[in-house]
Design a protein that fits this description.
Number of helices: 7
CATH architecture of the largest domain: 3-Layer(bba) Sandwich
CATH superfamily of the largest domain: FAD/NAD(P)-binding domain
CATH class of the largest domain: Alpha Beta
Strand content: 25-35%
Structural class: alpha/beta
CATH topology of the largest domain: FAD/NAD(P)-binding domain
Shape: globular
Helix content: 10-25%
Number of strands: 16
Oligomer: single chain
Largest sheet: 9 strands, mixed
Length: 338
């Protein structure tokens, strides 16, 4: 069920079991999973069904890190989130991504890669990927072509990796019908989280206050709250936490700007191989430089691409070139910083 937040009764309090903030890949996935066992959920989305300038401008902020130019089309603040402008790259984390690194503050996971493997397997259908296999040797054998072979390097400083391409799945379009037909999930569009209320010790969230550009205000009260935004955005731009803890009663902490992570790898080269692979798959050979252990390692990166994905990306690129309104990246109006 979809609800336009601009039409919600002023001052209303929406009751639910789970409240999810953000209807992107993570938020929509969580909502669909909660629908299966019949758990009542509210899914809050800042935008609507398509991009609009006012909502997108909420992402604007000040870059205080490595100089990096964010184009208007690189973030999508409407139903489906960044899947609307996502290229479709999919690859599981590596074991060392979970390790604690003494030279990096606040790093280290409480579990390892094995904990996530069953969940990775479940995402393949959701993302419309191929087999749940990312071993280079497997794909080399499956492709079985003399002109697609790995080159061994004796130094051990070159590592082969595999990624797969989703078509890509635009979650707001592909799963809109599922959300519309959901009996236990209510999706509130144009709903911006303005304030997060907690208990007196600031340990438990009790309520989210919502606002729209039209001035409408209401709230969502739930037993459980989940942030459905991606790993790039670590803090909501408009979230305000009211703390009532001892020693800080009534203190308000405001995140004034969005906090974003910039690029973590340096692209150094790319070479195109033949697309035709029995109408089944194609490869693209890409080389990138990254530092998973703090030591420079060259990655020879092979990307398994479904034939359908190639066609989908070409069609979308053509729409962007024509300035089609169907292409989310085509809207590039720049507004002054706020």
């Amino acid at each position: 069920m979809f609800i336009d937040s601009r039409s919600v009764e002023e001052g209303a309090v929406i009751e639910t079991t789970v409240c999810i903030i953000g209807a992107g890949v993570a938020g929509i996935t969580m909502a669909l999973e909660l629908e299966k066992p019949g758990i009542s959920a509210v899914l809050l989305e800042s935008g609507g069904y398509k991009a609009d300038d006012d909502t997108r401008d909420l992402y604007r902020g000040e870059n205080v890190g490595v100089p990096y130019e964010f184009a208007d089309g690189c973030r999508s603040r409407f139903l489906g989130g960044s899947s609307n402008c996502w290229g479709g790259w999919c690859r599981p984390l590596d074991p060392w991504d979970f390790e604690k690194r003494d030279w990096v503050a606040d790093r280290g996971w409480p579990f390892g890669l094995e904990e996530l493997r069953p969940y990775y397997a479940r995402t393949h259908q959701l993302l419309q990927l191929g087999e749940n296999n990312f071993e280079p040797a497997y794909w080399e054998a499956a492709i079985h072509r003399n002109d697609v072979r790995r080159h061994p390097f004796p130094t051990g400083k070159v590592r082969d990796t595999i990624s797969q391409f989703s078509p890509p799945v635009r979650f707001g379009k592909v799963y809109r019908k599922h959300l519309l037909d959901a009996k236990n999930v209510r999706v509130f569009l144009f709903a911006n989280a303005l304030n997060i209320d907690t208990d007196s010790e600031a340990r438990t969230v009790t309520k989210i206050e919502i606002g729209t550009f039209t001035g409408r205000r209401f709230a969502v009260r739930a037993k459980h709250f989940r942030a459905g935004d991606g790993r790039d955005r670590k803090c909501a731009a408009v979230a305000v936490v009211e703390q009532g803890a001892e020693g800080g009663a009534g203190q308000r902490q405001r995140s004034r700007r969005p906090l974003l992570h910039g690029p973590s790898a340096h692209h150094v080269g790319e070479g195109e191989l033949q697309e035709g692979m029995g109408a089944q798959q194609a490869l693209r050979h890409q080389v990138s430089l990254s530092e998973p252990r703090g030591v420079g390692v060259w990655h020879v990166h092979f990307v398994a691409v479904c034939a359908d994905a190639i066609g989908a990306r070409k069609r979308e690129a053509a729409q962007c070139a024509r300035g089609s309104t169907r292409c989310s990246a085509a809207k590039t109006r720049r507004a002054p910083k706020r």
